[in-house]
Amino acid sequence: MPEISKRGNRMPNSPIRKLVPLAEEAIRKGNVVYRLNIGQPDIPTSPNAIEAIRSLAAKVVEYGHSAGNESLRRKFAVFYKSIHIDLDYSDILITTGASEAITLTLLTCLNAGDEIIVPEPFYANYFSFATASDVVVIPVTSNIESGFALPPISEFEKKITPRTKAIIICNPNNPTGHVYSRKELEQLRDLVLKHDLFFISDEVYRELCYDGERFTSAMHIEGLEKNLILIDSVSKRYSATGLRVGLMASKNQALLQTALKFCQARLCPPNIGQIAAEAALDSPQEYLDMVYSEFLKRRNFIVKELNSMEGVFCPVPKGAFYTMVKLPVDDAEKFAMWMLQDFSYDNQTVMLAPGSGFYFNTDLGKQEVRVAYVLNIDDLRKAMECLKRGLLAYPGRLIPGATLAGVMNGKIL
Amino acid sequence: MPEISKRGNRMPNSPIRKLVPLAEEAIRKGNVVYRLNIGQPDIPTSPNAIEAIRSLAAKVVEYGHSAGNESLRRKFAVFYKSIHIDLDYSDILITTGASEAITLTLLTCLNAGDEIIVPEPFYANYFSFATASDVVVIPVTSNIESGFALPPISEFEKKITPRTKAIIICNPNNPTGHVYSRKELEQLRDLVLKHDLFFISDEVYRELCYDGERFTSAMHIEGLEKNLILIDSVSKRYSATGLRVGLMASKNQALLQTALKFCQARLCPPNIGQIAAEAALDSPQEYLDMVYSEFLKRRNFIVKELNSMEGVFCPVPKGAFYTMVKLPVDDAEKFAMWMLQDFSYDNQTVMLAPGSGFYFNTDLGKQEVRVAYVLNIDDLRKAMECLKRGLLAYPGRLIPGATLAGVMNGKIL
């Protein structure tokens, strides 16, 4: 039998999805599983998108343009104008979710063996996309004790080598909730220009900033234009993850024309998704307001609940809909598996994403999990009750030391 | 400005799509463009698929399982049973079109620098997917004069090196229409087992075999099981290319589990497409019969028309809905561009896919084009009229020599 490829063997299991078989088994045993592992909100998809799908007029579901449907690209350009981002429709390539946008960006900008700097903890699939593209991830570590503040730029500077080709950030951040300030973005711009790097800015959670944090797009930063690739998606804003419609955008046409060749090879993005996405961009403001207030409410609830559990520490995320949480357990992955395999309370349990998968050095996340606050308050309440009881019952529980508790108390709400 | 990646620069423009801007311009000038360049049939999408889209019940268009929706995978397994292919649902991974299935297969089976043997002319995007994956394409050449008969196995054998890792075929073939016989598949099996290679069989045109040719799947060939990856799609069978739903299937679970890690990274295939695909698998026999008889009629029409043009040679394709055609022109790509930019008859013109993109050695296809007979007879008649007149008017026309014409006459209908 021929051997599997080395890159196939190197590919990590998704920390977000690897426990799916255990969750399926828990459900088969009659349990309700609260899925806090994945960014799949229970919020209804934009009614405009649903209506567009149900009203499909076409008799032939055809291939579209490889760059995406022109009408959708033009509508995105109008949307960006409304948030002071100057993009022509020809600066935009529609992709099969932000996932494909990142993969195509890596293939377009980096050769095999080139390095990309990523603040960690990072969206776990950045590591997967890099591995699939034979690109080397170089992490710059932030930590939970400081609320995942961005490390000083000097830490980034130290990681630069002749193979460094790009920096990628997620703003607002998945999994930490960090919202990048204009000052931080300008510092990164200076670094990027100094070393002639590409800058990839994943802004799919743009609308979700809390506590008066103001969102600044990398597209708002002067001087970055030719180095910058914006990543976006309709998945989160319109609660439409299953459509698989995202985009990459850049003012660097040479880059986009190269990316288009990769787009041509895969023919086109999903067409029904594009039709729905185009309608979603007309979603009423009340819908967007509802989405925002739901996530704010959920964040407030979950941060308070988590920090009330003995030995648990949850910094306050300022954006997106995730938070990294430190648990008083020997190994958060073992704990997450145990919650699905061995624990239930009132026939309910919780699915968490083990933190190690969000770090390059997996040991760093050994006591952490990522929680996606994507369920309604009622479900979140039940989930938190399960988690609290699970933590008390878990055989690998560490009794929290007084010092640690003290340090943590200084950071909580 | 940082440099575009080498693999980005190496990526070919799709011969199927590179002329799109010229076609758009021709349309802007008021012309009708008959698109024979791309496998986009004008046949209505399966009514079952359309109905499923219009009846969408879900309020939230969610992420699905990374392997694809279980209900769809199970339905595919039932479908395969009906054509004597023994696959469990767990042997199947749903992908974003066959395009993604091929990319994931290459990433799973081949390292950067590994070689894949492909009979040429080949589906042009095989070369693109290989380039994107840093895989080296090694062609085994067939030629139009012999009707693209499969070269002897000894020609494959000659191309094998220590880096050879796989063979890929398309059966029935895009672009040649060749249908692989059981004997040919058994010869390839012997070669694959002898050298411990993966065998990738792209069977998306399975239902379209003409003139009594009988389709044999690589899945029907004994002994190949652990080496074989089947590629499939709903695009062509149900005229639903825009859904972007395909699959890869294998009895080699280690291979599939590795491919699943790549699937997890991109989260899931398009969900509305999957719902539609599941319904399409229940399409009535009358629909499938209509599709078949339409393509048969179109093939018969187009082969006759093409061969009636002076200096044109079109072998009789035995399957799929393409044919490679030799034209009496200096350069078929220049001719295809000229047809869009400089020629029209009665405000109509024809878009063709230049043949060179279907060959590794692009010179081999310099006088050839691929014609997709995807339009109704009425449109095909108008398209052929345009082509005939275009060929007579084209400044780079070669007057066909008597010898060449004689050779060709021996092969035509």
Output the strand order for the largest sheet of chain A. Answer: 2-8-7-6-5-3-4
Q: How many domains of chain A? A: 2
CATH fold-level name of the largest domain in chain A: Aspartate Aminotransferase, domain 2
Averaged pLDDT of chain A? 94
Report the largest inter-chain contact. Answer: A-B, 86 and 86 residues
Fraction in beta strands of chain A? 5-15%
Name of the level-1 CATH class of the largest domain in chain A:
Alpha Beta
Put simply, the count of helices of chain A is 14
Decide which structural class fits the backbone of chain A: alpha/beta
Please trace the helix and strand order of chain A, writing H or E for each element.
HHEHHEHEHEHEHEEEHHHEHEEEHH
Classified in CATH, the superfamily of the largest domain in chain A is Type I PLP-dependent aspartate aminotransferase-like (Major domain)
Q: Mind summarizing the main beta sheet of chain A?
A: 7 strands, mixed
| Gap between N and C termini of chain A | 57 Å
Shape of chain A: globular
Note the quaternary state here: homodimer
| C-alpha-based Rg of chain A, rounded | 21 Å
